[in-house]
Amino acid sequence: MDDFWVFGYASLMWRPGFRYVEKRRARLAGYHRSLCIHSYSHRGTPERPGLVMGLDRGGACVGVAFRVAHADRDRVMDYLRARELVTHVYKERLTRVVLSDGQTTRAVAYIVDRSHRQYAGRVSVEEAVERVCGAVGQAGPNEDYVLNTAAHIRELGIRDPWLEAVADGIKLRLA
After folding, report:
1. Which helix (H) or strand (E) holds 173?
2. Is pLDDT of 34 > 80?
3. What is the pLDDT of residue 14?
4. pLDDT at 1 over 80
5. CA distance linking residue 128 with residue 122, whole number of Å
6. Comparing C-alpha atoms, which of 141, 164, 140, 142 is closest to residue 151?
7. What is the model's pLDDT at position 2?
8. For a Cys staple, 18 with which of 76, 109, 164, 168, CB 3.0–4.6 Å?
9. By three-state DSSP, how is residue 75 classified?
10. Are 39 and 33 spatial neighbours (Cβ–Cβ below 8 Å)?
11. Backbone dihedral region for residue 75 (phi beyond 0: left; psi -120 to 50: alpha; all else: beta)
12. How far is CA 109 from CA 106, 136, 162, in A?
Protein backbone atom coordinates (compact mmCIF):
# COMPACT_ATOMS: atom_id res chain seq x y z
CA MET A 1 0.00 0.00 0.00
CA ASP A 2 1.07 3.61 -0.59
CA ASP A 3 2.18 6.13 1.98
CA PHE A 4 0.51 9.53 1.88
CA TRP A 5 1.51 13.14 2.44
CA VAL A 6 0.20 15.95 4.67
CA PHE A 7 0.95 19.62 3.89
CA GLY A 8 1.64 21.96 6.80
CA TYR A 9 1.86 25.74 6.48
CA ALA A 10 1.66 27.02 10.08
CA SER A 11 1.76 25.15 13.41
CA LEU A 12 1.62 21.76 11.66
CA MET A 13 5.11 22.52 10.32
CA TRP A 14 6.81 22.39 13.72
CA ARG A 15 4.16 20.66 15.85
CA PRO A 16 2.56 18.06 13.62
CA GLY A 17 1.41 15.85 16.50
CA PHE A 18 1.53 12.67 14.43
CA ARG A 19 4.10 10.09 13.43
CA TYR A 20 5.66 10.52 9.99
CA VAL A 21 8.34 8.81 7.93
CA GLU A 22 9.79 11.85 6.18
CA LYS A 23 9.55 15.63 6.31
CA ARG A 24 10.36 17.84 3.32
CA ARG A 25 9.97 21.43 2.25
CA ALA A 26 7.11 21.74 -0.26
CA ARG A 27 5.28 24.34 -2.34
CA LEU A 28 1.53 24.48 -2.84
CA ALA A 29 0.40 26.60 -5.80
CA GLY A 30 -2.93 28.39 -5.84
CA TYR A 31 -3.07 29.20 -2.11
CA HIS A 32 -1.17 31.48 0.25
CA ARG A 33 -0.63 31.51 4.01
CA SER A 34 -2.77 34.22 5.60
CA LEU A 35 -4.12 35.43 8.92
CA CYS A 36 -7.62 35.10 7.50
CA ILE A 37 -9.54 33.28 10.24
CA HIS A 38 -11.21 34.83 13.27
CA SER A 39 -10.37 32.88 16.42
CA TYR A 40 -13.13 33.02 19.03
CA SER A 41 -11.64 30.53 21.49
CA HIS A 42 -8.00 29.46 20.97
CA ARG A 43 -6.49 32.91 20.31
CA GLY A 44 -9.37 35.24 21.07
CA THR A 45 -12.93 35.48 22.36
CA PRO A 46 -16.28 36.31 20.76
CA GLU A 47 -15.91 39.83 22.22
CA ARG A 48 -12.27 40.21 21.09
CA PRO A 49 -11.51 37.74 18.28
CA GLY A 50 -7.95 37.05 17.31
CA LEU A 51 -6.61 35.92 13.93
CA VAL A 52 -5.11 32.56 13.00
CA MET A 53 -3.62 31.11 9.83
CA GLY A 54 -5.44 29.65 6.90
CA LEU A 55 -4.62 28.74 3.34
CA ASP A 56 -6.52 31.25 1.22
CA ARG A 57 -6.96 31.46 -2.56
CA GLY A 58 -4.25 32.92 -4.73
CA GLY A 59 -0.48 32.88 -4.93
CA ALA A 60 1.57 30.04 -3.53
CA CYS A 61 2.66 28.78 -0.13
CA VAL A 62 5.94 27.20 0.88
CA GLY A 63 5.54 24.87 3.81
CA VAL A 64 6.39 21.34 4.87
CA ALA A 65 5.10 18.02 3.55
CA PHE A 66 5.09 15.00 5.84
CA ARG A 67 5.11 11.49 4.40
CA VAL A 68 3.01 9.21 6.56
CA ALA A 69 3.18 5.42 6.46
CA HIS A 70 0.08 3.76 5.08
CA ALA A 71 -0.26 1.77 8.33
CA ASP A 72 -0.70 5.08 10.22
CA ARG A 73 -3.17 6.60 7.74
CA ASP A 74 -6.42 6.16 9.68
CA ARG A 75 -4.87 7.23 12.99
CA VAL A 76 -3.28 10.35 11.45
CA MET A 77 -6.43 11.31 9.54
CA ASP A 78 -8.54 10.94 12.70
CA TYR A 79 -6.06 13.13 14.56
CA LEU A 80 -5.97 15.78 11.81
CA ARG A 81 -9.74 15.93 11.54
CA ALA A 82 -10.08 16.34 15.31
CA ARG A 83 -7.45 19.10 15.24
CA GLU A 84 -8.38 20.99 12.07
CA LEU A 85 -12.11 20.49 11.63
CA VAL A 86 -13.36 21.60 15.06
CA THR A 87 -15.46 24.49 13.71
CA HIS A 88 -15.32 23.44 10.04
CA VAL A 89 -13.66 26.71 8.99
CA TYR A 90 -11.24 24.51 7.02
CA LYS A 91 -12.05 22.19 4.13
CA GLU A 92 -9.99 19.04 3.84
CA ARG A 93 -8.57 18.78 0.32
CA LEU A 94 -6.20 16.52 -1.57
CA THR A 95 -3.81 18.98 -3.22
CA ARG A 96 -0.80 18.78 -5.50
CA VAL A 97 2.48 19.92 -3.94
CA VAL A 98 5.98 20.17 -5.34
CA LEU A 99 8.60 18.74 -2.99
CA SER A 100 12.08 20.25 -2.53
CA ASP A 101 13.60 17.85 -5.08
CA GLY A 102 11.06 18.85 -7.76
CA GLN A 103 8.94 15.73 -7.36
CA THR A 104 5.18 16.34 -7.45
CA THR A 105 2.88 14.47 -5.10
CA ARG A 106 -0.61 14.69 -3.64
CA ALA A 107 -0.97 15.90 -0.06
CA VAL A 108 -3.84 16.43 2.35
CA ALA A 109 -4.19 20.14 3.14
CA TYR A 110 -6.69 22.23 5.05
CA ILE A 111 -8.00 25.20 3.04
CA VAL A 112 -10.09 28.01 4.53
CA ASP A 113 -13.80 27.93 3.77
CA ARG A 114 -14.48 31.47 2.54
CA SER A 115 -18.21 31.08 3.25
CA HIS A 116 -17.65 30.25 6.93
CA ARG A 117 -18.52 32.93 9.52
CA GLN A 118 -14.96 32.80 10.89
CA TYR A 119 -13.45 33.82 7.54
CA ALA A 120 -11.89 37.26 8.03
CA GLY A 121 -10.92 37.86 4.41
CA ARG A 122 -7.78 39.64 3.32
CA VAL A 123 -6.48 42.08 5.87
CA SER A 124 -3.69 44.60 5.57
CA VAL A 125 -0.54 44.34 7.67
CA GLU A 126 -1.79 47.20 9.85
CA GLU A 127 -5.22 45.64 10.32
CA ALA A 128 -3.68 42.25 11.18
CA VAL A 129 -1.44 43.87 13.82
CA GLU A 130 -4.44 45.71 15.29
CA ARG A 131 -6.60 42.57 15.46
CA VAL A 132 -3.85 40.34 16.85
CA CYS A 133 -2.52 42.65 19.55
CA GLY A 134 -4.52 42.27 22.73
CA ALA A 135 -6.49 39.19 21.67
CA VAL A 136 -6.17 36.30 24.14
CA GLY A 137 -7.87 32.91 24.10
CA GLN A 138 -7.67 29.50 25.74
CA ALA A 139 -4.32 28.80 24.03
CA GLY A 140 -2.83 32.13 25.10
CA PRO A 141 -2.07 35.52 23.56
CA ASN A 142 -2.62 35.89 19.83
CA GLU A 143 0.69 37.77 19.57
CA ASP A 144 2.53 34.64 20.76
CA TYR A 145 0.90 32.53 18.04
CA VAL A 146 1.83 34.94 15.24
CA LEU A 147 5.38 35.61 16.48
CA ASN A 148 5.96 31.88 17.01
CA THR A 149 4.68 31.09 13.52
CA ALA A 150 6.90 33.77 11.95
CA ALA A 151 9.96 32.59 13.92
CA HIS A 152 9.49 28.94 12.95
CA ILE A 153 8.97 29.80 9.31
CA ARG A 154 12.16 31.86 9.36
CA GLU A 155 14.06 28.98 11.06
CA LEU A 156 12.97 26.70 8.22
CA GLY A 157 14.44 29.18 5.74
CA ILE A 158 11.03 30.12 4.34
CA ARG A 159 10.43 33.74 3.36
CA ASP A 160 6.96 35.17 3.92
CA PRO A 161 7.28 38.96 3.60
CA TRP A 162 3.67 39.70 4.57
CA LEU A 163 3.84 37.61 7.75
CA GLU A 164 7.26 39.05 8.56
CA ALA A 165 5.80 42.57 8.29
CA VAL A 166 2.94 41.61 10.62
CA ALA A 167 5.41 40.13 13.12
CA ASP A 168 7.55 43.28 12.96
CA GLY A 169 4.45 45.41 13.60
CA ILE A 170 3.49 43.29 16.61
CA LYS A 171 7.03 43.57 18.03
CA LEU A 172 6.86 47.36 17.69
CA ARG A 173 3.51 47.44 19.52
CA LEU A 174 4.85 45.23 22.31
CA ALA A 175 8.07 47.23 22.77
Report:
1. helix 161-174
2. yes
3. 86
4. no
5. 9
6. 164
7. 83
8. 76
9. helix
10. no
11. alpha
12. 9, 27, 21
